[in-house]
Design brief:
Layout (H helix, E strand, L loop, with lengths): L14 E5 L3 E2 L2 E9 L1 E2 L4 E10 L2 H6 L13 E2 L8 E10 L7 E2 L7 E7 L10 E4 L10 E13 L4 E8 L5 E7 L12 E3 L4 E5 L7 E3 L2 E7 L6 E13 L3
Antiparallel strand pairs: 1-7, 2-7, 3-6, 3-9, 4-8, 5-7, 10-17, 11-15, 11-16, 11-18, 12-13, 12-17, 14-15
Length: about 240
């Protein structure tokens, strides 16, 4: 009541915005945005964002067309990631006696999840498995390796299988191309099916693999997944004589 005949009481607006500083994040990809809020029944808070290669470019960029509404984690992966980012909170209420608030809870008010840019990760990496010395439970006897069968999984890359004996005079390797279709040729070394692949290797007759104990090493330098499920060795055992 103003005691003036034509007076209008100027009440607060029912909406407003808050704009964050420009933050440097060096993002390769954006993931999600979440925030802590207290709304009351009539309140609402949504967010827009913008990015740029420089702080100035970010501050002049258009705000995102999408108003993000899920405070528990809005998916922002469709937005363009860049070096800098800025947020705008849109606060509104249908009752000016009650205002929405951004609050600090669990040590944050606004939380951004993103992938940080940096040097390109290695596409290929070396992976190696090596056994101990195996005497096939026949110590004191020479073993003549006749057949080595490797059961494996993998769709690409090359497994290098190395065999050494404990005397040091056998050091041989063979390769398994995991991209080869095991069904295409019943006469080659690649056998089985796509689900159950195995490779059969016959050591050279002219350079036989002979030793009391052997060590196996498998290596692969690609970036794909592989698994060796079993190694089966067929050998002939003979007494060691001077």
């Amino acid at each position: 009541e103003t005691y003036l005949p034509d007076a209008t009481i100027d009440r607060p607006d029912d909406d407003g915005t808050w704009t964050s500083p420009v933050y440097k994040i060096d993002a390769l990809a954006l993931d999600s945005l979440e925030w802590n809020e207290t709304l009351g029944n009539p309140g609402d808070i949504t967010f827009n964002l913008r990015t740029g290669a420089t702080a100035a470019a970010c501050a002049l960029a258009a705000w995102s067309a999408t108003d993000y509404t899920d405070s528990n984690g809005s998916d922002i992966s469709a937005e363009t990631a860049d070096t800098y980012i800025q947020f705008k909170a849109n606060l509104s209420t249908t009752d000016t006696d009650y205002s929405p608030y951004l609050i600090s809870r669990d040590n944050y008010v606004i939380r951004l999840a993103y992938v940080k840019s940096g040097s390109t990760k290695e596409a290929d990496y070396a992976s190696i498995w090596q056994s101990g010395w195996i005497d096939f439970e026949a110590p004191g006897f020479n073993k003549y390796l006749e057949v080595i069968t490797v059961y494996y999984e993998g769709a690409a890359g090359t497994l290098t299988f190395n065999v050494k004996n404990n005397e040091g005079d056998t050091d041989d390797s063979f390769d398994i191309n995991m991209a080869v279709d095991p069904d295409d040729d019943s006469t080659d070394a690649y056998q089985g099916t796509d689900e159950n692949k195995y490779f059969v290797y016959y050591p050279s007759i002219s350079e036989p693999m002979i030793g009391e104990a052997f060590q196996f090493k498998i290596s692969e330098s690609g970036g794909g997944e592989w698994k060796v499920k079993k190694i089966k060795v067929q050998c002939r055992v003979e007494q060691i004589t001077d």
